[in-house]
C-alpha cells in the first residue's frame, strides 16, 4: 500500500514538473477548462454537459463497433469489456488509512484554531488577525472560483519556475525572511506583552 502511495506521489510530482508535457498539458487544460466553465455556467450545468459529452462518445463508439462487428461478422464482444470487468471498489483498508489521516489533520486544525481564537499566544493571534484582515481585501477583489483558477495556474507554473531559478529564489526568500524576523523582533522588544511565550 505504501508503494502505491509513493508511486502516486511520484506521478503527481512528474505532472507538476511537466516531465511528460503531453500528459501534463491534458490535465492542466482540462482542469482549467472545467474551472473556466464554472465561471459561466452553474456546477449542475457543467456536470450535465460533461456527462452528455461522455455519453455521446461512448454510445457512438459502442454503436460503431456493433455495426462493424455485424458487417464483418466477428464476435469481438463489448468494446468496453476490459473497463467493465475492472474492479473499481475501494478497499476498506485504504478508506480507513485516509480517514485516519483526514481525522488527524482535522483535529490538529481545530486545536490550532482554538489556540488562535482563545489567544493562547498573543503574537500568533495578532498574526492570524492580520492574515484575516488581508483576506477581507482578497475576498473583495476575487471570488473563490477566480482564486481556484489562479491556484491551478500557480500549481502548474511555480514548481517549474522554482526548479529553473532555485538559487536566486532561495537567496531572495532568505533576505525577506531575515528582514521580517528582524522587524518582528524590534516590534516585540518595543511593545510590552508582545514577547513570545517560551515553550
Automatic annotation (TrEMBL):
<keyword id="KW-0472">Membrane</keyword>
<dbReference type="Pfam" id="PF02453">
    <property type="entry name" value="Reticulon"/>
</dbReference>
<feature type="transmembrane region" description="Helical">
    <location>
        <begin position="26"/>
        <end position="55"/>
    </location>
</feature>
<dbReference type="GO" id="GO:0014069">
    <property type="term" value="C:postsynaptic density"/>
</dbReference>
<dbReference type="GO" id="GO:0005789">
    <property type="term" value="C:endoplasmic reticulum membrane"/>
</dbReference>
<keyword id="KW-0812">Transmembrane</keyword>
<dbReference type="InterPro" id="IPR003388">
    <property type="entry name" value="Reticulon"/>
</dbReference>
<feature type="transmembrane region" description="Helical">
    <location>
        <begin position="141"/>
        <end position="162"/>
    </location>
</feature>
<keyword id="KW-0256">Endoplasmic reticulum</keyword>
<feature type="domain" description="Reticulon">
    <location>
        <begin position="12"/>
        <end position="199"/>
    </location>
</feature>
<dbReference type="GO" id="GO:0030182">
    <property type="term" value="P:neuron differentiation"/>
</dbReference>
<dbReference type="GO" id="GO:0043005">
    <property type="term" value="C:neuron projection"/>
</dbReference>
<dbReference type="GO" id="GO:0071787">
    <property type="term" value="P:endoplasmic reticulum tubular network formation"/>
</dbReference>
<dbReference type="GO" id="GO:0007420">
    <property type="term" value="P:brain development"/>
</dbReference>
<dbReference type="InterPro" id="IPR046964">
    <property type="entry name" value="RTN1-4"/>
</dbReference>
<keyword id="KW-1133">Transmembrane helix</keyword>
<protein>
    <recommendedName>
        <fullName>Reticulon</fullName>
    </recommendedName>
</protein>
Amino acid at each position: 500500500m505504501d508503494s502505491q502511495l509513493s508511486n502516486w506521489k511520484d506521478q503527481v510530482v512528474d505532472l507538476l514538473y511537466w516531465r511528460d508535457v503531453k500528459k501534463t498539458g491534458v490535465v492542466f487544460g482540462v482542469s482549467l477548462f472545467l474551472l473556466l466553465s464554472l465561471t459561466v455556467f452553474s456546477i449542475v450545468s457543467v456536470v450535465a454537459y460533461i456527462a452528455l459529452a461522455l455519453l455521446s462518445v461512448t454510445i457512438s463508439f459502442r454503436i460503431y463497433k456493433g455495426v462493424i462487428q455485424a458487417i464483418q461478422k466477428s464476435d469481438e464482444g463489448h468494446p468496453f469489456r476490459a473497463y467493465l470487468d475492472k474492479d473499481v471498489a475501494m478497499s476498506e483498508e485504504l478508506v480507513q488509512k485516509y480517514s485516519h489521516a483526514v481525522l488527524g489533520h482535522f483535529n490538529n486544525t481545530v486545536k490550532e484554531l482554538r489556540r488562535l481564537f482563545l489567544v493562547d499566544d498573543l503574537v500568533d493571534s495578532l498574526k492570524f488577525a492580520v492574515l484575516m484582515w488581508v483576506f477581507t481585501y482578497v475576498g473583495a477583489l476575487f471570488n473563490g472560483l477566480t482564486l481556484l483558477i489562479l491556484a491551478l495556474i500557480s500549481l502548474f507554473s511555480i514548481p517549474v519556475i522554482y526548479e529553473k531559478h532555485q538559487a536566486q529564489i532561495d537567496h531572495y526568500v532568505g533576505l525577506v525572511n531575515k528582514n521580517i524576523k528582524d522587524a518582528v523582533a524590534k516590534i516585540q522588544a518595543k511593545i510590552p506583552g508582545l514577547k513570545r511565550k517560551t515553550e
